[in-house]
Every structure is written in C-alpha cells, then in structure tokens.
Design goal:
Largest sheet: 8 strands, mixed
Oligomer: single chain
Shape: elongated
Strand order of the largest sheet: 7-5-6-4-1-2-3-10
Structural class: alpha/beta
Number of strands: 10
Number of helices: 10
Helix content: 40-55%
Radius of gyration: 25 Å
Strand content: 5-15%
Distance between the termini: 28 Å
Length: 342
C-alpha cells in the first residue's frame, strides 16, 4: 500500500523544513511513503528547502492558483503515481505530522473512506471566542448539508482513500474542505474523525484577510455544494413559502367580497398574483434543477469510470482486512525525480 503525503505551499521556506522533518517514514499497514510538495506560485526558497530535505515529487504552479486547485492537482499527481491513500497537510506547520499514522489508520483498516483530524478548536489558545463559536457553527452547517457528525469540518489535515478520491470532484476555487465533506456525505462515503492537537501559530492565514471574508467564502461554497445535491429542499420550501404568502391576499379578498366590502382591495389580488407567480417560477426552477442533478450524477459516474481506467481500479478485499488498490491497467511512472509544472 502506497501513501502520498501532499504539502501545499505558498512561500513556506521558514516552516516547510520543520514539516518535512517530522513526517513519519514508517506507518503500520503502509508499504511505501512518498512526499509531494505542491508549490502554488512561491517566490521564496520553498522548492530549494524541499529538495534539501529529500523531496522528489513536485507539482508547481507558475502563479498562485489557490488551495482548492493545489489540492486537486496534488491528488491527480498522487493517483497517477500509484497512491492508495493521500494525506493532505499544510506547509505552515499548523499540524503535528506525528499524527499522520493515527489519521490513516481508519482508512488502512478499511473502516473509513476519509479521515479528518479534529483540532479540538475549543481548546486552541490563539483562537478568539468569536472564532471558536464560528468554527463550531460552521461545522454544524456543514454537517446538516452533508448528513454527517464531524466536530471540525474546516480541518485541512485529512486522509483520503483511493476509492474516495475517484468519487470526489473539486470544483470550487476557494477551499476544498467544505465541498469534499458535503460531496462525501451525500455519496455515502464513510468519514472518521481523529482527535489531534496542533502546533503554535506560525503566521496568519493566506486564504482570507479576516474571519468575515472566510465566513462569506465558506458560506458560498457550502450553499453551492448543497444546491448541487439537494436543490429540491431550497426551491421546494421557497415555492411553498410564496404559495402561502400568495394565497393569503386571495383568501382575504374572498372574505371581504362575501361581506360586500371587496371594493378598493384590488391591490391584494395584485400582490397575491405576484407571489403565486414566484411560487410557479420556483417550481419550474425545481424541475430544471432536478434534471440538471440527474445529468450531473450520470456525468460523475462516467468521470469515475474514466478515473478508474486512468488511475487503476480499486479492490476492497485484502488479507487481514487491510484495504488495498489493485492496478488493472499499466502503472504510471514512479520515477524518483518526477516533476509536474502547470
């Protein structure tokens, strides 16, 4: 079983060495461990530091493409080079790499398709009270959208099985964290939570300027992902709301008409008609969204088959209950000097 540990980096020359030095070289149930550094347009010595620490696998972006794109490109590279499990960590030394063994254990044993580290944010000293509350609230929103029970949905320290990566498709431009959980939950993948502790803060986040920008972008990503899988919930409730609001003026006008005082209340009919038209539009959008959802499912199934052919199919049976991947096609090159640049 081959494990790829990918480290997305943007100008991390100061902390990358500490991350690479603490990555375990042996993990129970894992035969090979490879380290992949994803350079997302760094302008410092990030690449040189990685090479000095013996890293032989790289994905390089000529300019900054963002965390979601870095994650996606790293996964493509890892799968193409025979990865059975992919762990995503950070180059800022936020996470303690000695927990990687704990993180991959549920995946190696076949008990989970995805394992997500629980940073226990309520205990993180440098998190403000407001940030802790927002982290908890955000996790609850994601859990509702995904049908999961994860204590730390925003954690980027994760392990993915090959089977899970073949099923997931990252389309957001901000961060893959929320989107992949919602996809995994709605695709009935098994997700485990692994408690960890984190290192002291080394720098401010480069994903967002402040917590409100983070909330806005995360909220947009959650809403978009939720609508992909459950458009009927949002549009159905909107249609019902507009229909009820539209029916009230008509009922009021009808009562007044029975009482002989309906004159002068034509505006009630105008307002009610507007609301009923809005309800009909929601129903029409619901039909279109449902058709698009059906097409998306068919496209994703086709894409999963294409990935299986390109990266090799997954066999969920193995001696001693350990999950493994069986490559059905020609294996991709695993040249030690492998390098990809976008």
């Amino acid at each position: 079983m081959k494990l790829f540990i990918q480290v997305p980096c943007l100008n991390e020359e100061r902390t990358l060495g500490m991350v690479l030095d603490t990555i375990p070289r042996q993990i129970e149930g894992v035969d090979e461990i490879e380290i992949l550094v994803i350079d997302d347009g760094s302008t410092d010595r990030t690449l040189e530091v990685a090479r000095e620490h013996g890293v032989k696998h790289f994905v390089r972006h000529a300019r900054n493409m963002g965390l979601a794109r870095s994650f996606r490109d790293g996964v493509d590279y890892a799968l193409a080079h025979g990865a059975d499990i992919v762990v995503n960590t950070d180059g800022d030394n936020q996470y303690k790499q000695e927990y990687i063994g704990n993180l991959v254990a549920p995946v190696v044993r076949g008990e989970a398709d995805i394992a997500i580290a629980d940073r226990q944010t309520a205990k993180i000293a440098h998190f403000s009270w407001f940030k802790k509350r927002m982290q908890h609230f955000g996790s609850q929103v994601v859990n509702y959208a995904a049908g999961t029970r994860l204590p730390d949905a925003a954690s980027g320290f994760r392990a993915y099985s090959k089977n899970a990566l073949l099923k997931l498709n990252v389309i957001t431009q901000f961060s893959y964290c929320m989107e992949t959980i919602i996809q995994a939950g709605n695709k009935r993948l098994r997700i485990a939570s692994v408690p960890i502790t984190t290192n002291p803060k080394t720098r401010e986040s480069r994903l967002f300027n402040n917590i409100f920008q983070h909330m806005a972008k995360s909220g947009g990503a959650i809403t978009r992902s939720y609508l992909m899988f459950k458009p009927h919930v949002v549009l159905g409730w909107l249609a019902a709301f507009f229909a009820i609001i539209g029916a009230v003026p008509f009922i009021r006008f009808f009562v007044l008409w029975l009482m002989g005082t309906a004159g002068g209340h034509i505006q009630s009919l105008v307002f009610g008609t507007t609301m009923l038209v809005a309800a009909l539009l929601c129903v029409a959008l619901l039909v279109i969204a449902d058709l698009q959802r059906t097409n998306r499912v068919l496209i994703e199934e086709t894409l999963e088959r294409v990935k299986s052919i390109e990266y090799g199919r997954v066999d969920d049976t193995r001696i001693r209950g350990i999950r493994a991947a069986v490559i059905s096609g020609p294996a991709a090159s695993t040249d030690a000097s492998s390098y990809r640049e976008d």
